[in-house]
Write a structure and sequence with these properties.
Rossmann fold, about 30% helix, 21 strands, single chain, disordered C terminus, 5-stranded antiparallel sheet, 6-stranded parallel sheet, about 450 residues, 4 domains, 14 helices
Length: about 450
């Protein structure tokens, strides 16, 4: 597959690295010589310095033979024009653009992106995606991350094992016998910054972040098994009233009832704007780092504080202050990867990464055919791949104990005619099954081959 990526920032670089690892032909365009130099040094891709809007630059990037263009520069207009030029001059089949300005998502202007005007196949809005991710986490309290799978039939969740977790210090292969109600699969563990896919003789320890997969109907019971019985948040403070904060508050209001919401926004003009367009939300024009303001907002009675300012350091510090004041749960937005290893140490379990969310969302649209969805775990550590088993799959109708799966590839769930199966060694995959697979980041191509899943991006 030939892919052109416009923008070599965090998102563009991550997508380029991801696609290059799967032996795709990747070209990256950016106006920054320094960013392109990094691409050429660290990624098996071609980097070109120039404007993504320029026909000459797109032509030099191989647009005539490209299967897809992914426009993720910092400028919405550049992303839109790049896709337009790719379509009009080079007939690139698939076009994906990141667009931040919410005016373009107004249904009133939906026709703008029709094939006869500006034919962009997929529009990614980080603000909307982050708001959706945070709202899902609020709906499942006690988790550090939540990902619905198989059209909502399954959930992939992360939790912190605390002192009251009864499952710690027990080998994973003994859990079904000792805890019969523990109908979940442990798929990954983070311990002291080290990420690994556990074996049957591994154990969970206090302080571990554990990722598990379970049926939606059993989710609450599994969380109780981990010692997490937190109630759904009803009293929420959002620090930062920018585009992400505004999208988040609207999402919370639309999906929840009887919620007490407050926004702390430092910019006076923005605070006034928020007060004019939001109903039943208290707007505080102040800094989230002001202890007096936190006290006036009754932070000790707040269930959840969500810090989504444009400054990572502010988000982390506000979250730490809230914890000191007795706030039950904090969710800081953190962009910089350098802080990822610190958040767990600081006790900030539920961290939101716009970059990771955006990359994961875009990658879901890159693959098609029998691959139904791809979900990243812990950045690019591993993937959950949802795939439909074809009649030519090499593992069809064979017991899993007789199937030689690649290293670090595991079948964790099978959905067959609405029945959810957490398979054992005697289980088998049938034609048409919806299969949920955990794969290390470098094994995705092998999974496609096993399931005869040719990628169709058109």
């Amino acid at each position: 597959m030939r892919v052109i990526i416009c923008g070599a920032g965090q998102v563009g670089f991550s997508i380029a690295a991801y696609l290059a690892r799967e032996n795709n032909d990747v070209t990256v365009i950016d106006q920054s010589p320094e960013m392109i130099a990094r691409v050429n040094m660290e990624v098996d891709a071609i980097g070109i310095v120039g404007s993504a809007c320029s026909p000459d630059v797109l032509n030099a990037a191989g647009a005539r033979d490209a299967d897809m263009i992914i426009a993720v520069t910092q400028n919405d207009e550049v992303n839109m024009v790049a896709c337009q030029v790719a379509h009009s001059l080079f007939n690139v089949p698939k076009k994906i653009a990141r667009i931040r300005d919410q005016v373009f998502r107004n249904p009133q202007w939906a026709n703008l992106f029709s094939r006869s005007h500006m034919p962009i196949d997929v529009i990614i809005s980080p603000e909307v995606e982050v708001a959706q991710a945070v709202d899902i986490r609020l709906s499942v309290p006690g988790t550090t991350t939540v990902t619905p799978l198989a059209d909502g039939k399954l959930y992939l969740c992360g939790v912190i094992c605390e002192d009251n977790c009864p499952l710690v210090n027990t080998q994973l292969n003994q859990l079904p016998e000792l805890f019969p109600d523990m109908s979940a699969r442990i798929v990954a563990i983070v311990r002291d910054g080290r990420r690994f896919i556990p074996k049957g003789n591994d154990q969970m320890y206090v302080g571990d972040e554990v990722f598990f997969l379970t049926e939606t109907s059993l989710l609450k019971r599994i969380l109780v098994s981990f010692g997490h019985e937190e109630n759904k948040a009803r009293n929420i403070i959002v620090v930062g009233g920018g585009n992400i904060g505004l999208s988040l508050v609207k999402k919370i209001q639309n999906s929840n009832e009887n919620i007490n919401l407050k926004i702390i926004e430092q910019n006076t003009e923005r605070a006034i704007y928020l007060s004019e367009i939001l109903e039943d939300v208290l707007i505080l024009n102040a800094s989230g780092l002001d202890r007096q303001i936190l006290e006036e907002a009754n932070i000790s009675d707040v269930d959840t504080l969500i810090a989504v300012t444009e400054d990572d350091e502010t988000n982390i510090l506000v979250s730490l202050l809230a914890r000191q004041y007795g706030c039950e749960r904090v969710i800081p937005l953190v962009n910089k990867e350098a802080y990822n290893s610190l958040t767990g140490t600081l006790g900030l379990g539920a961290v939101v990464s716009p970059k990771a969310i955006t990359v994961s969302t875009i990658m879901r649209h890159v693959r098609r055919g029998r691959i139904r969805a791809v979900h990243n775990i812990l950045g690019d550590f591993a993937e959950i791949i949802e795939i439909t088993a074809s009649e030519s799959s090499s593992i069809l109708n064979r017991q899993l104990c007789d199937v030689d799966l690649p290293k670090n590839v595991y079948i964790f769930a099978i959905i067959r005619d609405e029945e959810i199966i957490l398979p054992d060694a005697k289980s088998s995959v049938k034609k048409g099954d919806h299969v949920v697979i955990l794969a290390a980041r470098d094994q995705a191509v092998k999974v496609e081959k096993i399931f005869s899943a040719q990628v169709d991006i058109f």
